[in-house]
Target: Actin-like protein 6A
Amino acid sequence: MSGPNGMLYGGDEIGALVFDPGHHSLRVGYAQEDTPKADIPAVIGVGPASHIPDAEEKVPDGNITQSAAKTGNELRHYIDVTEIHVPRPGMEIQTYIKDGQVDNWDLFEKMLDYCYSKVIRSPPEHHPALFTEAVWTTRPAREKLAELLFEKYQAPAFFLVKNAVLAAFANGKSTALVLDAGASQTSAVPVIDGYAIVSAAVRSPLGGDHLAAQAKIMLNNMHIQMLPIYSIQVSESPYEERVAAAVPGVHHEFPGGYHQDFGPERFKLTECLFEQTMGAAQLVCSAAGACDADARPALWGGVVACGGLSALSGWPERVARELAARAPSSHRLKTHAAPSPQERRFAAWLGGSILASIGSFQQMWISSQEYDEGGKGQLERKCP
Model:
């Protein structure tokens, strides 16, 4: 399918872009690549500007964006790791995403400006854009995103895909039950023949942020300032103090110079992710049970584990063990998890990279011409 000036949307001359916005970070890069070009924290520093450049004056730092001209209440927006981790007087850390969808569009525009100008370094009108979305994204949010891409960024083509569908594609499946453990929540979404069954999707608020909050409480009680989140581990079986105590401890040095070995507490913290009513295994059971009986054998035979939290050591093995104890005896259980933690974390983005590069997909894009003629109604027609 060709766009304006004969551009081939999925060809080698003009690369389609894949955006995967999440609660923890936004992944962006070119289709056909095996990793995102950038993984940008989903928070932006907003603070007063000490100096506002004139319109023709160049801002020296590429990670800083100015808001408008000299009006007396000017703000600077600090984006990406090197900027938001620098303490600044009056700077507030804000996020543009809530409950899995964009909540602050002004901030999100700042992020997209940064992606195009500093990461892709190419005009947006040259690149079709594929965005991932959560299954519970509202219609107004979907329409606002399409409006933004076509009307502000002049994208030649646009497409929206459910992240669970893309995670299944990344694991070589068109039918799967996708268990996505992210920062703000864990969800289980049935995908059948490339379509997410929204009515059967379930989620819980137990995610990486909850785990980090529990770690902070534990460390405060121990009078320790901080524990790197990556040092937490998942026990392959339900937590038992005696068994966990037998595992050799892991030594950690904190930023302040404090040293300590951590043993059973590394495993005890993660038990909340597997509790009976909202744990990962229970979500899978609920999602599968909400689907037609004819579809359940294929879903139980294709459980896909993905998301940032699934990168925790021991997570895939524990999920498989928990599901084995709950799966109906009449169905053959098979769990799938990419061998690399990064592949599990970037599963939706990788699925988008694969999809946007397939020749047969090129006719699926919503072109700018179609949008001009049919408006936002094109979304429901082409991106169900």
Remarks:
- The first helix runs from residue 81 to 84.
- Confidence is low (pLDDT under 50) at residues 1-8, 52-60, 66-72.
- The first strand starts at residue 17 and ends at 21.
- The domain at 15-42+96-207+270-383 is CATH 3.30.420.40 (Nucleotidyltransferase; domain 5).
